[in-house]
Write a structure and sequence with these properties.
Blueprint: E1 2-3, H1 15-18, E2 33-36, E3 39-42, H2 46-58, E4 64-67, E5 83-84, H3 93-96, H4 98-121, E6 127-128, E7 132-136, H5 142-155, E8 160-163, H6 164-171, E9 178-182, E10 186-188, H7 190-198, E11 205-208, E12 215-217, E13 222-226, E14 229-233, E15 235-238, E16 255-264, H8 269-275, E17 282-286, E18 293-296, E19 302-309, H9 318-335, E20 344-354, E21 361-366, E22 369-373, H10 379-395, H11 400-407, H12 419-435
Parallel strand pairs: 2-14, 3-4, 3-15, 4-11, 7-17, 15-22
Antiparallel strand pairs: 1-12, 5-10, 6-10, 7-9, 8-9, 12-13, 13-14, 16-19, 16-20, 17-18, 18-19, 21-22
Helix pairs in contact: 2-10, 4-10
The chain binds flavin-adenine dinucleotide.
Flavin-adenine dinucleotide binds next to helix 2, strand 16, strand 20 and helix 10.
Length: about 450
């Protein structure tokens, strides 16, 4: 019996969820009593929802359960920065080759277009085809930007270099020296999007919220234990992101990393007129890997994300949230010194899984046990296509894209704790030092 000892929790005030429509609506009951399903997907984030939806498309008569420890939108899928990134991210094209980059681009755009269809069909709000800036404030971080622009050029991906007064005009702040703008990225309220997807689930998918899996007795049939309930199933898909190790089928492959976000109150008409006249909503990631992600949102708020941490318990404390809040204030006031009176309405944390070689985990781990994890901070899009193709893999539907995913899903080994703890903390500390004013 595989017992689960670490469970997802709500870390802080979840700004996207609280500003999404139908925040308080429950989509599914708690799982109680004994049930049998043909498939069980654990994790109702972008990955799990996509897997459940595609399984239902492939086998319309199958009975599918989708279970989550939290409410939909409370997991990392509803806590992230809301970038649907089309271009390969954190990649060294020179090392992996241009064709590899193009394949990832094709998969990313496939996922974005699939999400777009659901957005259109179910009128999911806060979707903006705004593109994305990658920007640098520090001169020492300009080479990172130039390197990115060079790789885009090499692979033939469209991009613009934006600097000086033009960059200030577009962002409403003169903070950044230079930016690379790419147009295919979409900005969303991720909680609104992931919750909106629930409307697209067919009747053959039964969603159970607030239902943490407490233990699994592996079979098949596999028996998933809940408090006051059990599901028996021949096939289980684990789409639990950073909690994957709890289920015992993917040891020493991922590093769970915490990061934090804040969302301000909406700017007033006066503040908008004074400082953001003509500025359209935008999203910006940093040229430095430890730098700050910033957005000017559709509802006129500023979003800030930074601060990484390795928390073995997979949950944050009030002290950690407070430290993140202080860093967010400093980063916000450095970029928008003219908005010092603006407060943060929400500050929260979330955990995502990274792998050493940036390859995700996507595998049949045992008979009737399938595992997806390691979305490396770009899981909105990556989780969407991995979930989709996992369903195809299970149902025996072959394609070039599935073959590509299978060939490129071999996350390299990472040491267990305490070595992983020491290594992760050291890398995070060093990255923070070199990022300087880009944090
Ligand atoms: C602050 C922040 C900013 C980010 N920014 C971006 C971004 O801009 N773009 C991007 O693409 N990615 C971003 N990411 C990463 C992104 O959020 C993840 O890659 C993505 O959410 C992964 O989706 P998922 O469905 O695999 O995992 P999750 O959304 O984490 O879903 C896994 C689910 O499994 C459930 N679960 C775990 N254990 C159990 C259990 N025992 N029983 C039942 N259910 C369980 C959890 O409750 C959770 O809902 C960011 C992450 C954070 C934290």
């Amino acid at each position: 019996m595989q017992k689960i000892t670490r469970f997802p929790r709500v870390d802080g005030d979840l700004g996207w969820l609280e500003t999404a429509p139908d925040t308080n609506v429950a989509f599914g009951p708690r799982l109680k009593g004994n049930h049998e399903f043909d498939y069980v997907v654990i994790g109702a984030g972008f990955t799990g929802i996509s897997a459940a939806m595609r399984l239902a498309e492939n086998e319309p008569s199958a009975r599918i359960a989708l279970v989550d420890a939290l409410r939909v939108g409370e997991g990392a899928s509803g806590r992230n920065a809301g970038f649907l990134i089309d271009l390969p991210h954190n990649m060294n094209f020179a090392k992996t080759g241009v064709e590899h980059a193009r394949s990832l681009f094709r998969l990313n755009t496939f996922a974005i277009e699939r999400l777009r269809q659901f957005k259109d069909r179910y009128a999911i709000p806060f979707w903006n085809d705004a593109g994305k800036y990658m920007a640098a404030h520090e001169e020492s971080n300009l080479p990172g930007l130039e390197n990115f622009a060079g790789m885009l050029k090499h692979a033939g991906f469209d991009h613009d270099l934006v600097t000086g007064p033009e960059l200030t005009r577009r962002l409403g702040t003169p903070y950044y020296r230079s930016a690379v703008y790419t147009k295919g990225n979409v900005l969303v309220n991720p909680a609104a999007l992931v919750r909106g997807l629930i409307k697209a689930l067919p009747r053959s998918v039964t969603l159970f919220e607030n239902s943490p899996v407490q233990a699994i007795e592996y079979g098949p049939p596999h028996k998933l234990k809940f408090i006051g309930g059990e599901i028996s199933t021949p096939i289980v898909v684990q789409a639990t992101n950073s909690f994957v190790e709890q289920f015992g089928k993917l040891p020493n492959r991922i590093v769970p990393i915490f990061t934090y976000a804040s969302l301000t109150q909406p700017l007033t008409e006066r503040q908008l007129a004074q400082h953001f006249k003509g500025v359209k909503p935008w999203g910006l990631t940093s040229a430095h890997m430890a730098g700050t992600t910033v957005r000017f949102t559709d509802d006129n708020r500023i979003f800030i994300r930074n601060t990484y941490d390795y928390l073995p318990e997979l949950r944050s404390t009030g002290d950690e949230l407070d430290a993140a809040w202080r860093q967010h204030r400093a980063s916000f006031e450095a970029r928008f010194p003219f908005l010092k009176e603006v407060t943060f309405d929400y500050t929260w944390g979330g955990v995502f899984s990274i792998t050493q070689n940036h390859e995700p985990a996507f595998s049949r781990a045992d008979e009737g046990v399938y595992v997806i994890s390691g979305c490396n901070g770009v899981g909105v899009v990556k989780g969407t296509y991995l979930g989709y193709y996992m369903a195809d893999y299970i149902c025996g539907i072959e394609s070039d894209d599935l073959s590509f995913i299978l060939e490129n899903s071999n996350p390299s080994w990472v040491p267990p704790d305490p070595l992983r703890f020491v290594g992760a903390r050291a890398r995070i500390a060093w990255a923070g030092v070199t990022a300087k004013g880009d944090v």
